[in-house]
Amino acid sequence: MKKAPILIAAFILGSFAVAGVGLVAMTHAVTDGRIADNQRQAMLSKLKAIVPAERMTNDPLTDRVEVSAEDLLGAPTTEIYRVRDGDQPVALILKPVVPNGYAGPIRLLVSVLTDGTLGGVRVLEHHETPGLGDKIDERKTDWVIREFTHKSLSDPPLEQWQVKRDGGEFDQFTGATITPRSVVKAVKNTLLYVQRYGDGLYQQPATGSQPAAGHGKGAS
Fold this sequence. Notes:
Blueprint: H1 3-48, E1 64-67, H2 70-73, E2 78-85, E3 88-94, E4 97-98, E5 106-113, E6 118-125, H3 143-148, H4 178-201
Antiparallel strand pairs: 1-2, 2-3, 3-5, 4-5, 5-6
């Protein structure tokens, strides 16, 4: 007879435990969905900031390819988003990595329009020194916007794609030359990659079906 209260208590505790686990799982699923949607909207906002937003009629987050060109794009694989206006290509937005930042890798977002000019450059992630190298962040200064928007491999000429301290066109920061030097080189290399492979990238199947053009070490 004494076992009955114990069994009832165990059943009640077990029910609460099952209900609690279910509630946590449901909350986790809902929260994960909201986080993913927020991240998606934040990335779309970044993309629209560096292309003619009125000409983005597709979803570039699904219309994307992955390539392997570490020598020019800085990472074993690189995502490329394709922006289209109907059937017309508008821009390629690449996510190259600057492997040799002063305080570690720097992750960029680089938009290259179909005429070969830069729609814009943004810094996605960095670990540069506050007050010095972190001036590449558009939340700190407008350097990355001022220096790159509408530039191309012919404006300035290719040999001028260096910081002024090295005889080039681009401003460096007082007390911090390594960071802007590395970013300028990475953006130049991104333009070189698109110059060589850009037209074909628009024709490739979206990632998930077949490998994209420019794979292997063919971007040397």
